[in-house]
Amino acid sequence: MKPFKEYTRRRFIKTTSGFAAGMGMLSCAKKGADPSDKPVEGQLPKRPLGKTGISVSMLSFGGGSQFMANANGVWEPLLERALALGINFYDTSIDYNGSEERYAEILAPIRQNVYICSKFNGMKDNCRDAEVMKQELATSLARLKTDYLDVYMLHSVDANDDVKTCAPVFEEMLKLKDQGVIKHLGFSSMDSAEKSRDFIVNFDFDVCMLAINPTRYGNYEEIAMPEAIKKNMGVFAMKVMRDVVGVNGATAEVLLAWALDRDGIASAVIGHKGLDVLEQNAQLTLQYTPNELSKQQRDLEDRLRPLAGPHALCWAHPSYRDVA
User: Fold this and answer.
1) Domain boundaries in the chain?
2) pLDDT at 42
3) Mean per-residue pLDDT for 270-289?
4) pLDDT band with cut points at 50, 70 and 90 for residue 22
């Protein structure tokens, strides 16, 4: 990685000029934007992020293994292009080795114009631990070159997590929120919709990130989403395309549209390997219109339902960890 100081003034201005204009755009309605709210000059539309009071681009930037697969010299213009397109939410984790440092190089100079989310494990003796969480937070803040996070998430809630044992971690997160170190609290999950529902019901999280795609793996839409909607949580869809695009006629266009059509979804978080993939997904987001034809959606789900499991979805395997 090249030194942070090599981020030149010319490159900084070029990166941020179009993005700054897009920050003033109005938020979009739950399912697609009103025509009067359509962004100009290629800026992506936005939606309200639940009760947080902020609006996020309908396409968010994932900083996991797909992003980290981009070589030096490739990831820098990828992030810069994301900014120019109006992507304003950037997700990462302490697990994504090198991702937070990459983000810092491009995002730190314009920190006030973007929303950054990182995630923690906080594991000690196979349990989540508040002190370990705080240590991981300090590491993430240092790597990201920032003194606060817009969203901080408990990473990958699964069937082994317990509401009672995680309560001290949540209480400590609340204290950090009161101090302004964390603006909004959240969790991610791709392994247990049931446990996600329990966490939503028992804790006052602001945001969650759930595995949502037409395979209906995990049944998050039926089990967890109704409770999230009741509490007006901001919800991100993840694993929208992973291991599914190109299978049984599932194109990137229909997969992205299916996710954005779900009630309560503010944005799709997608990792991009290569500038062409980012450009394609941005264009699909710009062209997105709500699909009220439930039969078409059911047909898509029927075609992809056989993929709902670790035999087809690498991220559904119990041993999977999105560690870059």
Assistant:
1) 48-316
2) 67
3) 96
4) very low
Token representation of residue 9: 């003034």
* Exposure string for 13-33, b = 16+ CB within 10 A, e = fewer: eebbebbeebeebeebeebbb
Alpha carbons within 13 angstroms on the beta-carbon side of residue 69 total 11
Structural Rg of the chain based on CA atoms: 19
Partners of 207 in beta bridges: 186, 234
Joined together, the tokens standing for residue 290 give: 């709500």
Strands 89-91 and 115-120: parallel
Lowest mean pLDDT among 35-39, 59-63, 171-175, 206-210: 35-39
| Architecture (CATH level 2) of domain 48-316 | Alpha-Beta Barrel (3.20)
Amino acid in position 16: T
From 170, 233, 228, select the one nearest 196 (Cα to Cα): 228
Give pTM, 2 decimals.
0.88
Q: Which residue has the tokens 């919709």?
A: 193
Q: Rounded to whole angstroms, how far apart are CA atoms 181 and 193? A: 29
pLDDT at residue 59 is higher than 90: yes
Instruction: Specify the pairing of strand 46-48 against strand 55-57.
Output: antiparallel
Query: Strand 265-271 and strand 59-62: pairing?
Result: parallel
User: Over 60: is that where the pLDDT of 13 sits?
Assistant: no
Residue 217: DSSP 8-state: G
d(CA 270, CA 115): 15
Contact 62, 20 (CB under 8 A): no
Q: What is the pLDDT of residue 323?
A: 62
